[in-house]
Design goal:
This is Receptor-like serine/threonine-protein kinase. By secondary structure, the chain is α+β, with helices and mostly antiparallel strands. The protein has 12 helices and 15 strands. It folds into 2 domains: 42-135, Phosphorylase Kinase, domain 1; 140-337, Transferase(Phosphotransferase) domain 1 (Transferase(Phosphotransferase), domain 1). It has a 7-stranded mixed beta sheet, with helices on both faces. Strands 8-11 form a two-stranded antiparallel ribbon. A hairpin with a 5-residue loop joins strand 6 and strand 7. Helix 6 (156-176) runs antiparallel to helix 8 (241-257).
Amino acid sequence: MKYMRTNSLKRLFSRKRLSFGDEFANPSTSIEEGDHHSERPTWKCFSFEEIFDATNGFRPENLVGKGGYAEVYRGLLSDGEEIAVKRLTKASSTTDERKEKDFLMEIGTIGHVCHPNVLSLLGCCIDNGLYLIFSFSSRGTVASLLHDDKFPVVDWKIRYKIAIGTAGGLHYLHKVCQRRIIHRDIKSSNILLTGDFEPQISDFGLAKWLPSQWTHHSIAPIEGTFGHLAPEYFMHGIVDEKTDVFAFGVFLLEIISGRKPVDGTHQSLHSWAKPVLKQGDVEKLADPRLGGAYDVNQFKRLAIAASLCIRQSSVWRPTMSEVLEIMLEGMVDEQRWKIPAEEEEENEEFWGFEDLEYDDEDDDCDSNSSSITSPEDSILSATSSWPQIVN
């Protein structure tokens, strides 16, 4: 793959306001009927002066996070809009071309998205470096909300809203977006939160487009975050929608348990949860800080969805469409998800069909409810992780 040089970038971004649909859309790509978020996103090519002034000269006090190859600064535009500026940092000459390619891949991927639960690109800047500009997420990341001691315990209503919204955003990327996008790094530190706790999937540095006629994509080297990697990806480099489904299952477990994806003993969250799910001791999964204050039916649905998502074999994991059905409606076909005896894997027994209650009167959370990846979590990451943004 050839790299696009600066002059090519400037030609691409020469117009003040662009629609990615005009530049990149595949006319033959269909979008599901009835989707309300399929309009073409637009973005702006910012001048360096604009983002320099907005961040007050990239002053250290405006630095809100760092990743492998990027820094994120908080900024304020002249019209009062708060922004986050992701700036690629300097590296050795051997990595500069890779960084430029990753920058173009990220802008080409995120430039297609238009959904309330996926972070939208406001624009970019290619003067004096490479920059991506996003709306500022005032409440930071789900990881900081769940695990930072300075924040109060997150109540169940907000957790449920975050889980449903993230699932909706991931379903959009897989099935509705103009391009079939595999994120490859779904985790709580890559889920940002708006002022009303609406989740937004961010950091598309590892994302891949998967042509509709392909069943999967083989990738090397393996990149991602320990504790979230699907077995087939970690062992064989195989990537498809089920790669994200596995990581989403870990994310669900983190939401309901309050535990980190990897604990102090380096045990992964999903390996801890599997025997608990198999035994059906659902209450043992609940975050003790909730004090039992959660909707039991919603909790069970999220736990069942998580147990299916983290299955060893991708064949026996649901799609995000099916995950949403389980989370919202509790629709589970026992025969559909029962693994045949000859294929049954250790600790893969599904739990709790008989315990799932159906409640049509569940009070779903409405829209008005009110990181840096640690060294042990990083695996061969060659792109910047969207940093933790805090107030």
